[in-house]
Amino acid sequence: MNLLGLTDHRPLVALAPVIGLAAYCVSHVITARIIRGRSPYPALAIGALVGLAVTIAITLVACRRDAVSLVDTLALVGLNTLAALAFAFGYFNFVNLTVASLRIRILEELAEAGGRLPRAALLDRYGTASVADLRLARLLGGGHLVERNGRLHTGRLQFLLVARIFDGLRWLIFGPAYAAALRRPPAAAPGDSPRTP
Amino acid sequence: MSTALLAIGVFATAFLLHLAWWRIALPRRQTAALLAVFFGVLVVWLGVSHFLPGRWCTAADRWQAIHVAIFHTACALAYIVAYSALEHRSPSMTLLVAVADSGAAGCSPEELRSLLAGASPVEVRLDAMVHEGMVTRDGDGYRLAPKGRAWATVLSNWRRLLGMPPGG
Does the beta-carbon distance from B152 to A110 stay under 8 Å? Predict the structure, then answer.
């Protein structure tokens, strides 16, 4: 049996990560609407798993139809898994922009206010205290920080691990001096740039 | 196996080129420079594969070239997205690392608020949005520009489609 009447399944192998991304988007939208109102991240995780599964399944079936050797099949599955994860990361960040981006929130506030707001109103609405409090509430709610006797301690390690990996990458890409400067409070950090999302 | 080696080789070439450039001097428009490096290397490799076929470093056929291009595009875009978080440390990451670095003593909420006190994240973002043409200064306030309205509309509709609350 030939998939889609193809005699050569290499197009399916090559396009599997793109098809997986489409499956991610569709399954994410459906799941998000089913579990509407809760945290957006379970729907994103389910969508990512569906996309990854679709990518791997297409690659495996197409390789089998073309009688590709085991070593080559494993290499192609690995390559497409990496590509699917990379697409998933990009899509996650796009969706996360609508959840966590202060810039997008300000744009929406301006749109809802008829297109203009006084500077004082914006600074008052999104003052440093409210930004810090919002972040602290999210980190506590997600279990990344835990409170004991009025003081905050490290909780779940996933985000902290990401922060440490990023510190290592900064050291590699920008050099030790730039990375050390970033370890200072944000006001003094060279990366506190207008491009901050 | 050859497809995987080619794909990793093309991406590694672009990454090393980017690393060398950044260590010599940071480009002024970093995202644009990253796009130029990663997609420039891909275009050069596709050109070499088309005009000088049959070499160890070129694609054997059209579908291998497309496969490598899809892998490269996915990884390059993911890296460029991640890079924006490398340029600075986000407020949330700043708080997490400060708590971790404080050890067993931990931090009080006031200490963490003071850590972000000088950051003025709203002013930084408003200045950035003016710079990018998302909003314009209008006397003592800000006015939404067509570009900002378009972004707000697209992302708000996407968020509503997903049934998610406002962000920020």
Answer: yes
Other Cβ atoms less than 10 A from the Cβ of A90: the count is 20
Concatenate the DSSP letters of all residues of chain B into one string: -HHHHHHHHHHHHHHHHHHHHHHH---SSHHHHHHHHHHHHHHHHHHHHHHSTTSTTS-SSHHHHHHHHHHHHHHHHHHHHHHHHHHS--HHHHHHHHHHHTGGG-B-HHHHHHHHHTT-HHHHHHHHHHHTTSEEEETTEEEE-HHHHHHHHHHHHHHHHHTPPP--
Residue pairs between chains A and B whose CB atoms are closer than 8 Å: 297
Give the global pTM.
0.76
| Residue A103 amino acid letter | R
ipTM of the complex, rounded to two decimals: 0.77
Tens digits of residue pLDDT in A101-157: 777 888 888 888 888 999 888 887 776 666 788 888 889 988 999 999 899 999 988
State the Rg of chain A over Cα. 22
Instruction: Nearest by CB to A105, from B26, B126, B168: name it.
Output: B168
A93: closest CA of chain B, how far (Å): 7
**Contact yes or no for B94/B116 (Cβ under 8 A):** yes
The mean predicted confidence, pLDDT, of chain A is 83
